[in-house]
Structures are given as C-alpha cells and as structure tokens.
Amino acid sequence: MILRAKYVLPITSPLIRDGALRIVGKTITDVGPADDIIARYPAEAVSDFGKAALLPGFIDAHTNLEHSVIRAAELDVPFAQWTKTMISHSAKLTQDDWYASAVLGGLEALSCGITCVANTSATGAAVGVMRDLGLRGIVYREVAAAKRDDVEAAMRTAEDDVLGWMDEVDGERVQVGVMPGSLYSCHPSILTKVAELATRENLHLALHVAGSKEEMNFIRYGSSAFKVHDGEQPVEAGATLPWMTSGTTPVRYAVNWGAFDAPRVVAVHCVHVNDEDIRFLKSYDVSACICSRTNAQLGMGVAPIFALRRAGLHLGFGSDSLAATDSIDMFTQMRTGMLLQRATDADAGTYMDSHQALQMATIGAARALKMDDRVGSLEPGKDADVIAVDVSRLHLGSATDPVPGLVNTCAGTDVT
C-alpha cells in the first residue's frame, strides 16, 4: 500500500513535498518523492490524501484515559483544590465506569492523531481498552501507600496486577510499567520498592516529580496545601509519614529514596527544578515528560524546557489527567508548551520553534519512552503509525515549510 500527500514529514529527515510512503503489513518499507515511490512499486494501490501532511502518529508521554468522564467537574481552580475534587469524584466511580471512561479517552486520542500513549492506571481499566482499540504504548500500574505499615500489602497487590496485565497484552504493542503515586501521597519507601520491582521485572517506570509549588513545599518544609490531616480524618499518631520535613527538592528526595535506580525512567512535570536537579536527572539517564497545558490550567508553573533540553534529556509532551483540560489535543499541547517557553525563556539561543515542538510530540516522546526504534518518525523498518492532517485551510500556510502552520493553527479535528 502507498500513501501519498502534498507533504510527508518524516521528522528525522527533511520535509518531502509531494511525498509518499510504502507500507507492507505493519511496517514502513520506503519513504520518498511520490513519483519515485510509485514508479518503484507500480502494482501497489495508492491512497492519495491530497492537500494533507503525512506524519508519525503523536505520542502522549503521560496521560490518564480513565479520567475522561470527570472532565469539567472542577474548572478555574488551582492544583490543590482540583486534586481534592478529583479524589472525591473518583471515589464514586465503579470499575465499569472506569472502563467506559477509558474507552472515551482512547477514542478521543485516536481521533486527534495520538496513536501511542503512556497511560497511568490504578484500576487496570485501560489495559483492555488500549489492547482493544489498537492503541500502542505503556500502561503504568500506579501504587501508593501513605503509611509504612501499608507499603508491603500495596506492593504485593501492585506486583500481582503487573504480572496479570503482562499476560493480557501482547507485549509488542502494549507494554506494562509501574508508577508510584504522587510524592505527597506515598511513604518514601514506596519509591525504593517500585524501582526495585521495575528493575527485577524489566518494567517501564514513571513518577510525578516537582510538578507544583504545593508538592515542593510539602517535601521541603512539611507544610503546604497538602496537610497532615484535613480536620476530619486525622492521621494515626506515630505513623511514619512521607511529608516529614526533608529540607530538599522533590528531585533530590526521589534520588535519596532510589526512585531513579531503574532502567527506562520518565520524570513527569519537572516544573520546579534547579540546575542541580537537572544534573541528577541526566546522571540517572532519566527522561522528562512536559505537561504544559495542565500545568498552566492548574497554576502549577512552567517547566524549563530549554534547560532540560540543553542538559541532554529526552523530552516529550503529555496531556496528563484528562479531567484537567477540555481535550487531549496534541496540537494545543504543542502550541501551549512552545508559547509558554517563549514567554518565560526567550534569550538568544533559547527561542523554541515549531519544529522543536513537533519533535517533542513525536520522536522526542518516543526517545523518552525508549520506543524510538519502533515509532516517532517515518523511516523504513519502523511501525506504520501514520496520521494525515488536512492542511488545505492553514491560516499560516507556507510554500516552503508547513510545520509552523501545523503547530500554530491546527487542531485535532484537522486529523483526517
């Protein structure tokens, strides 16, 4: 089969005008000018997308498809208040609700051109959804326990789930990982044990870190909007708690508890990080997922994309919880991340352009998730995760480069 369009954007090689790619089975076998590809394979059927751009499917490096039905339950509130509301609403959902919600989220992701997701799940609903909808990616089993006495039981249950999930998926298209809960919800030994499990079972690992000022103050000072008790459910006296003053940053706190002592680690958010934190992340070969849109929506701050990039970290974009924003649209994610970076760090040499934003949504995210041998670019030998985006109505059309128009003006609804 040959796919043809006005533009082909391989991402890791230059733009091809009037380009095409040949697919055999699930694999890309050739990419180049349309006339050349058609001449080489005259017997192949050709699908011509006309005024469109063909590019690799977007990769959402951190999301939670199961939160779709909680969307808009709480708008225009800061992070701590939103978090408490989400906990309250989540307690009302059944397992069937979680499954239906993950289906809605998965269908929306596909319709917006996202073919690969790194999805966090405490319920397991997304495992079957990702498998059945044809999504590619990783499903992380989230595990949390605030009290030391509960850690062992939580880890046993999580490990059982991980092994069961591995039996449910084919391992080629959907892989399994593990993820500790937010730092303010976990006894610190959870971080150690999750990293040990990831190493022992060769699992992907991700963790939320340095996402908000509340988390930073919680870890460093033991005081923030995340209090020891909420006035109605005081914490048991004498319990060892994760929010005892550590006097350090969330990244250093995670390092001290061995959270990065595993292969294939992704640090999600990385908003409130300093130069030392970034050096630690690089030294542990940690990748970073930037959730610019959710961070802005909830007043969490702006991640220093350029500083992370300059240090050599692999970076991808993530939508985070689908309950925090109005869509999973990767175009909006790219645009928000790019514009916020320009607004906060626009010195010479740090100006983020559209090509860098598009790379973070494709090959950058693939490298962050250690999946770039399979996806993230259009190259012979890679899996045929391909999307077509209508460019006939670009407001910023260019005869030489469609990428600025794609990133600045397109939306998920332009994915055909």
Low-confidence runs? 228-242
Number of strands: 15
Rg for CA atoms? 21 Å
List the total number of helices: 15
Shape: globular
In terms of DSSP E residues, the strand content is: 15-25%
Helix content: 25-40%
**Ends: how far apart?**
18 Å
N-to-C SSE string, H for helix and E for strand: EEEHEEEHHEHEHEHEHHEHEHHEEHHHEH
Q: How can the largest sheet be summarized? A: 9 strands, parallel
Give the overall average pLDDT.
Answer: 91
Looking across the biggest beta sheet, what order are the strands in?
13-12-11-10-9-8-7-6-14
Q: By helix and strand content, what is the structural category?
A: alpha/beta
What does this structure look like?
- The protein has 416 residues and is of the alpha/beta class.
- It has 15 helices and 15 strands.
- A nine-stranded parallel sheet has the order 13-12-11-10-9-8-7-6-14. Strands 1, 2, 3, 4, 5 and 15 form a six-stranded mixed sheet that branches.
- The longest helix has 21 residues, at 148-168.
- The radius of gyration is 21 Å and the shape is globular.
Output the keywords.
single chain; 416 residues; alpha/beta; nine-stranded parallel sheet; six-stranded mixed sheet; 15 helices; 15 strands
Task: Describe how the helices and strands are arranged.
Elements lengths: L1 E7 L7 E9 L2 E7 H7 L5 E3 L3 E5 L1 E7 L14 H12 L4 H17 L2 E8 L3 H9 L2 E8 L4 H21 L5 E7 L8 H13 L2 E6 L3 H9 L28 H7 L8 E5 L5 H9 L3 E4 L1 H6 L7 H6 L4 E3 L2 E2 L8 H15 L9 H7 L2 H6 L17 E5 L12 H7 L7
Parallel strand pairs: 1-4, 1-5, 6-7, 6-14, 7-8, 8-9, 9-10, 10-11, 11-12, 12-13
Antiparallel strand pairs: 1-2, 2-3, 5-15
Helix pairs in contact: 3-4, 5-6, 12-13, 12-15, 13-15
